[in-house]
Amino acid sequence: MLVHTTSLSSFPLLRRGKVRDVYATPESLLLVATDRVSAFDVVMNEPIPDKGAMLTAMSAFWFEKLAHIVPNHLLSTNVKDVDGLLLEEVPVLAGRTMVVKKAKPFPIECVVRGYLAGSGWKEYRSSQAVCGVPLPGGLIESAKLPEPIFTPATKAEEGHDENISFDTAASIVGTDVARTLRDLSLQLYQSGSEYAATQGLILADTKFEFGLDEDGQIILIDEALTPDSSRYWLAAEHVPGEPQHNFDKQILRDYLESLDWDKQPPPPSLPANVIAATRNRYRTAMQLLTGLDVDQLETTD
Description:
Elements: E1 13-16, E2 20-24, E3 29-33, E4 38-39, E5 42-43, H1 51-65, E6 74-76, H2 90-93, E7 97-100, E8 104-105, E9 108-115, H3 118-127, E10 129-130, E11 133-134, E12 144-150, E13 153-154, E14 162-163, H4 166-173, H5 175-198, E15 201-212, E16 218-221, E17 230-234, H6 250-257, H7 272-290
Antiparallel strand pairs: 1-2, 2-3, 3-7, 4-5, 6-7, 8-15, 9-12, 9-13, 9-15, 10-11, 13-14, 15-16, 15-17
Helix pairs in contact: 1-7, 4-5, 6-7
């Protein structure tokens, strides 16, 4: 079942992001990962088949695998556990929904970089630092850093997040909290990258979100180590000194870059081969990380 946009009558919609629709139940939140895909901050009209289910499966996998480091907000991925859903709403949500604890999010993105890529590479070329973290000279694009670095960012409701220094992050959330979030993020990245390496993948960088639960405890929220929040490369294809092939929407971005499009709504139509190739990148990442394939995901029940 392709799901571009959800509209539940059983619970109120809190917000609609680029990918997720979030609903509030009396006891929890429903994070519904749709099949929407965005590029250059514009949501495409065509969905990517099974994308929401694949993102949900990968997040659930990582939440369980990393729970020894920090608690998380995941309660269940079974929508049958949710009282009050209408019978016809269950098939729409099945396989793509996380039932999660309510939490108060910290207003920063917790980014960890183990390799020099993306905005970090651009910033390094101009200042030999990333988010105020000085780095050795002579590093090249896609190079492994001497050690992973914490490079926080502000959250943007629309458009791109903005990289900030640790001191700026501390001024937003407090020094003690910033240190805790930094230490947790580095531990999560280290554990995630070590596991990814056993599956032939390099976790180049990732971002985490944290919040306070109703007991005032810091917990991991949102998603975890999916291709939407992380930059994965095939280790066997890693060639420092040039851009790498990511397990995300790179195929989509490359196609859009080939068009005469101003990167403003409305988006152009996507051809079937671009949709299929994008789906395959997510599918391959899920297979390598979780051992699951699409036909093993609960998407219609």
